[in-house]
Amino acid sequence: MPDNIRARFHIAFPSERGQSFCLDVDAMLPGSGIIAIFGHSGSGKTTLLRCIAGLQKIDRGRLIVNGETWQDEKNFLPTHKRQLGYVFQEASLFPHLCGRDNLEYALKRSGGHCQPKMVQRVIALMGIEPVLDRYPDQMSGGERQRVAIARALLIRPRLLLMDEPLASLDMARKQEILPYLERLRAEFAIPILYVSHSMYEVARLADYLLVLDKGRVAAQGAVSDVLSQLNLPLGFGEEAGVVLTGKVLERDSRWHLVRIGFSGGELWLPDNSDLGKEALRVRILARDVSLALEARDDTSVLNRLPVEVCEIGAGSNEATALVRLKCGDSYIIASLTRKSLARLRIEPGMKVWAQIKSAAIVQ
Ligand SMILES: Nc1ncnc2c1ncn2[C@@H]1O[C@H](COP(=O)(O)OP(=O)(O)OP(=O)(O)O)[C@@H](O)[C@H]1O
């Protein structure tokens, strides 16, 4: 059975004022992991999820989920027959039912396919045992959302759709819920389509990234590949930056630092991570990377890597440019003023030193 999701949709919404919106997507997505769908407001992210859920009927759509055809020229599986879980921005729990009964409802919908062991596993995974006897208005926003995710899992979905599940939560609640999503990805082999506006969430969670712009696919691929591309139609602005995965080599408890190795070299980073982890995901923002022609010791910058300039593209304003740098098998990007680029005569093909002022462990 192929481990992928083939989604092809074309839909046009007419508008009275002549500003019709057209979604035109043809994508082959991985059949596991977290697939982030990113784009500006109005780029078509929710419309794409609705097409996948079968809520938006399209005549010539095509959707195959890990070998199972949900829609093609001849077939259209109605929403209730698609084995999918849908988690919305606001947890859509039944307000008159306690947490446990909300889960019970999902169990009935799963047609008794969910074993008690599985129910316990989901409750433990989402850490919701203490709130099961509370009604939704007696739970925090984060707790409601965790119950909503648990409910979606009990349907035993083959695909989980999440439409900005953290958008209505404050930063503290977001931080509280993100580890649960990471555990969900690690423990369940369900592909998750995760719509988000937040580049931080994408950097932290996504394995694969689909960028939508005005209803079309602007870029797609492994998250580290897409984030290192310059000249996407929608720049990432101040959030431009890459994600690298590295291996923990050493922990320095005196200075609270960790040394990680990746294909391009080594980095020292503030050690705010889970001590047990052997692999860490690191986000390096372009604005935290500067370039030097020679390796210099007399700076406060802890990390210096030999890199090759690959490409120079537009920055977030006229004064700046983004520079794509090859570092071993990885890429990083630097945001520099055009004046500095001219002064140092930086051009594609040059070998220079990237100085990384700061980088954050995101996972
Ligand atoms: N049923 C509809 N009829 C007409 N236009 C629609 C309909 N549904 C969505 N649209 C339009 O399609 C466009 C894409 O909407 P969609 O909700 O998919 O965007 P989005 O990327 O999810 O935006 P946001 O991030 O703001 O939620 C918008 O311009 C919207 O007004």
TrEMBL record:
PROSITE patterns: ABC_TRANSPORTER_1, ABC_TRANSPORTER_2, MOP. Pfam families: ABC_tran, TOBE. Residues 298-363 form the Mop domain. The keyword Transcription does not apply. GO terms for molecular function: ABC-type transporter activity; ATP binding; ATP hydrolysis activity; molybdate ion transmembrane transporter activity. Residues 7-239 form the ABC transporter domain. InterPro entries: AAA+_ATPase, ABC_transporter-like_ATP-bd, ABC_transporter-like_CS, Mo/tungstate-bd_C_term_dom, ModC_ABC_ATP-bd, Molybdenum_import_ModC, Mop_domain, P-loop_NTPase. Keywords: ATP-binding, Cell inner membrane, Cell membrane, Membrane, Molybdenum, Nucleotide-binding, Translocase, Transport. Signal peptide: none annotated. One of its GO terms (cellular component) is membrane. This is Molybdenum ABC transporter ATP-binding protein. It comes from Microbulbifer thermotolerans.
